[in-house]
Predict the structure.
Amino acid sequence: MKIGVVANVLQDKPLTEALRIFRDLGIEQIEPGCGGYAGKAHIDPAKLLSSPAELENLKHMLQDTGIGISALSCHGNPVHPDKVKAKSYHEDMRNTVLLAEKLGIDTITCFSGCPGDCEQSKNPNWVTCAWPDDYLEILRYQWEEVLIPYWKKFVSFAREHGVNKIALELHPGFCAYNVDTLLRLREAVGPEIGTNFDPSHLLWQGMDPVMAIRALAGTIFHVHAKDVVIDRYNTARNGVLDTKHYSDEAHRSWLFRTVGYGNDAKYWKDIFSELRKVGYDGTVSIEHEDSIINRMEGLQHAVDMVRSCAIFADRSGMWWA
């Protein structure tokens, strides 16, 4: 495993400066935003694709610092019912694939997206229950008429350009948000659909990350290290479907925390050990989204925790047997 980072934690700094800071922290890989919600603070695929000189400059910059790219991030909603928004997200994803091809990268991270409830919708409609039956009809429309057809076309395009790992981050608000929905989309579309495994999004839904890793074995293309803390009292009062703003820290049922501030080392060691058992030895990309702690202090703590819990060396086998 290698220590990586979601690079937009330093989106206010030039890429050259951000790379130096990451290197000094012991980070080996970056996952830069290339559009969508992640923005394009460090890498704008459209600009790089139109300028061979700027593309070469990026390659030299990475080579000089010794930092690689684990995946290109393009987290948007390409099936948004607003056609203008959907087109923008889709174009960002398309350009991300083309840039990945130029850089020799086979993995992008993104969301599955979420359509509306019909062709005339203006906003996404994320269904959270199976009754009344209207919701099942919404799900049928979303999956059969929008989601699966879109991803079949996009996977075909990505495959043509050397991107064969589309790592979907399982997050509520999008159609693929848990084990079963990810596997359903993968079965319908193909083996290029996999997971950007982020345990924080699963834990606050009530899932067990180790169980999820076992169920997703063979589909995990990329991993995020982000922690979450569940407020037992707010959850006991309101459950986990919490729509309070992230800034309302005192009243939310859960909060994202820096690695080690939501769960202890045993939790993270179990996750990294299970990842090793299912064959994942790639990058662990730290995503720092903690409003309680300073971002640089939090990032340092996260690196320290990942370094102390992840598994880096090759197996030595059952040398004692």
Q: What stands out?
A: Residues 170 and 178 are 6 Å apart (CA to CA). The mean pLDDT is 97. The chain has one domain: 2-309. The radius of gyration is 20 Å.
